[in-house]
Recover the amino acids of this structure.
């Protein structure tokens, strides 16, 4: 039985197959509307995450399945001190597949070691969030036609942003992808990503401090939020915060076919005025997130297609 | 000069960094053994200046020596049979290390999950880097 704990659990071939299925679903969702009839998805969310949980639930409901679960540790047996391994053994009796979000890193791996149903990591602390990466990859594939020969700008908090790390680790598996890393000095990509992932593979990358300097050459701009509390001092935050807010003035410098992505939720790092720009694709990205989760559920449940 | 009796059959853990023999004694659980165990601290060494040595009057199967490679791969093991060294073992880094060290990451599941083994996996042999199996934090 397969689980999905890290984006790199999928080989390039498996990923291509999954994205092809997700693309077919996007083209004709109705064709898949009964594929999981009688199947149940358990959403085990030990910390709140409205977007991810609802995306999983929407995916299962779109497939004709049903959902059960909890949305915070307070409303689960974890509040009584139950271990993850005991919880998953019990949930395995109730559901056919589960999606788990947990504040402790590695909790979904522990669950997978004791589970008799597929476990999907829906985010474990600052560690992994593979279905966000799948969402990002599907969006890029659908909107740019593939992954090769792209220049991607990753902007904002590149130090703590797990979605950024996973996306880099996934994209280096393709040909001639160039990375432009746009962040304040305090929030640069960790050195192990630069040395072990980008440097070791000989991938082209540059680090810059200002979005305006980088935006003209980008095919994709992946925005993340720069949080005030990440800065060493307020003065530095005030000096730099404008560098990482995307507005129409900065969009004027970009290519006509650049796309803007964001894992959401957005706070103020993308000005609302950008939403009407056809290059703003972050809400389409949320839609693709449902399709790719539908494809993932079908694959992990080994549903025979066409159904 | 202190004299410790010659081993007839057993093994010698040699080239232990001076002052570390009690750590190794504890890691290997030598306190639980029935056989004779000699601990020699601060012995003279041409190579190291000072070193610690542990002599164990018993078979290699008494302890799990893999862990020594994780602690210090300069350590050597001499196997003694009938009073002579029959084998010199050099240590390699074990692929996994279980319940020897604890994960320091406060966000790791090992901090709260009952009876979960602390497992570290060798991810970079060249640089001796082990990472937690669960959260991937460096050891």
């Amino acid at each position: 039985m397969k689980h999905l704990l890290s984006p790199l659990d999928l080989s390039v071939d498996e990923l291509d197959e999954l994205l092809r299925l997700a693309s077919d679903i996007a083209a004709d969702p109705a064709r898949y509307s009964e594929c999981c009839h009688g199947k149940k998805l358990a959403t085990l969310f030990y910390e709140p995450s409205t977007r991810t949980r609802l995306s999983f639930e929407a995916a299962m409901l779109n497939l004709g399945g049903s959902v059960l679960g909890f949305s915070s540790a307070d409303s689960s047996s974890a509040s009584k001190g139950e271990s993850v391994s005991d919880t998953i053994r019990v949930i395995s009796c109730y559901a056919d597949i589960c999606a788990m979000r947990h504040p402790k890193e590695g909790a979904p791996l522990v669950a997978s070691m004791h589970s008799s149903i597929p476990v999907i990591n829906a985010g474990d602390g600052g560690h992994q969030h593979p279905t966000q990466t799948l969402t990002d990859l599907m969006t890029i594939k659908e909107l740019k036609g593939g992954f090769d020969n792209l220049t991607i700008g990753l902007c904002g908090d590149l130090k703590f942003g797990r979605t950024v790390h996973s996306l880099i680790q996934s994209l280096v598996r393709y040909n001639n992808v160039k990375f432009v890393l746009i962040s304040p000095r305090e929030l640069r990509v960790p050195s192990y990503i630069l040395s072990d992932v980008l440097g070791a593979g000989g991938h082209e990358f540059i680090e810059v401090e200002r979005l305006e300097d980088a935006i003209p050459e980008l095919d994709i701009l992946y925005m993340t939020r720069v949080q005030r509390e990440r800065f060493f001092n307020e003065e530095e935050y005030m000096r730099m915060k404008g560098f990482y807010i995307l507005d129409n003035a900065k969009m004027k410098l970009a290519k006509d076919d650049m796309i803007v992505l964001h894992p959401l939720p957005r706070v103020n790092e993308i000005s609302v005025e950008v939403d009407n720009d056809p290059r703003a694709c972050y809400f389409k990205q949320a839609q693709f997130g449902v399709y790719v989760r539908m494809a993932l559920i079908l694959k992990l449940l080994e549903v025979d297609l066409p159904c | 000069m202190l004299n410790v009796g010659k081993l007839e059959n057993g093994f010698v853990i040699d080239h232990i960094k001076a002052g570390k023999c009690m750590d190794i004694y504890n890691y290997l659980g030598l306190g639980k053994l029935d056989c004779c165990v000699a601990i020699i601290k601060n012995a003279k060494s041409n190579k190291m200046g000072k070193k610690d040595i542990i002599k164990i009057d018993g078979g290699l199967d008494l302890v799990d020596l893999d862990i020594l490679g994780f602690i210090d791969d300069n350590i050597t093991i001499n196997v003694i049979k009938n009073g002579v060294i029959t084998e010199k073992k050099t240590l390699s880094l074990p692929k996994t290390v279980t319940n020897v060290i604890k994960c320091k990451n406060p966000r790791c599941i090992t901090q709260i999950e009952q009876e979960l083994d602390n497992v570290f996996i060798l991810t970079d042999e060249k640089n001796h880097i082990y990472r937690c199996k669960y959260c991937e934090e460096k050891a």
